[in-house]
Amino acid sequence: MSTVAPPRHSSQRPGQSPRPFRAPAPVPHSTPLGFAGFIRTASRNPIEIWGTRAFKEPYIRGAWLGVPNIVVNDPAGIRYCLVENAKNYVMQPLRQRILRPLLRDGLLTAEGQLWRRTRKAIAPVFTPRHISGFTEQMQARSALFAKTLAKREGTTVDASHEMTLLTFDILQETLFSGDIASEPEGFARSTRDFLGSMGRVDPLDLLNAPAFLPRLRRLRGRKSMNFFRGLIAETIEKRREKLDRDPDGTPNDLLTLLIKADGLSSEEIEDNIITFIGAGHETTARSLAWTLYLLSQAPDERALVETEIDEVLPQLTHPSQWSEKLIHTKAAFEEAMRLYPPAPSLNRTALKADRVGDIDIPAGATLLVMPWLVHRHEMLWDRPEHFMPSRFLPDNRDKIDRYQYLPFGVGPRVCIGASFALQEAVIALALLLKDLRFDYVAKHPPRVVQRITVQPDGGLPMRVSRRH
Ligand code: HEM
């Protein structure tokens, strides 16, 4: 039986980082994992399955249980498969098996005609006008959160957990404006139970076992899922009644916009709210937490961010203008999403045989477009493992190929919440870092794992202090 070496992690120790900071990540293996090793590794931490070749070559061919797979790292190949010939590539069955019981007919997991109709109905909800309408709610919730954290000055917090609380709070506010069918802590607990118990890759999925075989990890989540769905259904019902009673007095939040959207049933609204909660708060939270961590390891970068926040905020009181002016803050966040893309894989299945570059793609093959690989690819980036936010400053940003930086995906299924997330992140970072500083205090660098999102195993212990 083949054995798998325990994962090694490369990084400098906190406080010792020569500039620029080399961000911790699993060290790619240089010898094949073998069948049992692959199952064990993929089940424990999917991003550890990648070997050194995956970060060097434009295309890699492989196979899993007789199904061919092709890793596409070449930006031109990515453009071809995900944009020019996107209709030939559907969501991969493995992802559907994991996410569909959770998100049902929500936009992320819908396919074909249902997806087209849902995307058309939901696109108007995320127009720039509606998104900038959320800036004040984002500002108010972030400011309140920073104030609460300031009271914990001198203590160590888990930044990963704290950012999840903050982004959940912001999403909940922009979704429901406080009108939820339970007290807030109970609602947050129910969301956590629901997402937590469903989120891991089950070994049976990797083995392509039929859907009727019980997945133990998921069964544990069924009760919390039903409870959570009940809360959302009740919240929608209450809002419908309120809209009928007092249309002018009802907040124009995401829930109202979804109810008013053309052609969505109550069930579809429920599925999409759950999708927004599933896709739209943990992702942003991870990137915020990684940004705080990376800045804590790169004092020069942190100084740039702090200085610009001190200069810009007193001049521009309205947060709708911050995104454009806080260029270092935004660049740090974008660089954190490059190093730790919250969604590390965009996988598809080929409907018909195709050809990309000089590689044949058989019908039924799995197409693997992996931000985790593309964002760290040696062909595409100077010092790919290093935290260098200047890559994303306005003068340099244009040099990055659209298809080599994919935190929000690309093509027809590109993230519908991308502008929402970027706006939220800049506002949250500005208000957190205006008065506070976060320092990573663990002895060892964080261990980077994929549990749907790319996250630090066991959290990010950071000491909170006041800057002024
Ligand atoms: C930093 C934050 C976020 C990241 C990194 C992210 C990433 C992504 C990625 C990579 C995809 C495409 C998946 C694929 O092609 O297979 C996606 C799709 C999606 N995202 Fe996001 N997302 C973020 C925030 C949000 C937010 C805030 C929302 C909603 C409030 C949201 C809602 C969605 C939805 C509904 C889809 C499915 C779109 C479709 O298939 O038509 N996301 N996201």
TrEMBL record:
Q: Which organism is it from?
A: Jiella mangrovi
Enumerate the transmembrane spans.
none
Which terms are listed as keywords in the entry? Answer: Heme, Iron, Metal-binding, Monooxygenase, Oxidoreductase
Q: Which domain of life is it from?
A: Bacteria
Region feature (Disordered): 1-26
InterPro entries linked: Cyt_P450, Cyt_P450_CS, Cyt_P450_E_grp-I, Cyt_P450_sf, Cytochrome_P450_Monoox
**The protein's name:** Cytochrome P450
Family classification: Belongs to the cytochrome P450 family.
Query: Transport among the record's keywords?
Result: no
Cross-referenced PANTHER family, in alphabetical order? BIFUNCTIONAL ALBAFLAVENONE MONOOXYGENASE_TERPENE SYNTHASE, CYTOCHROME P450 FAMILY 4
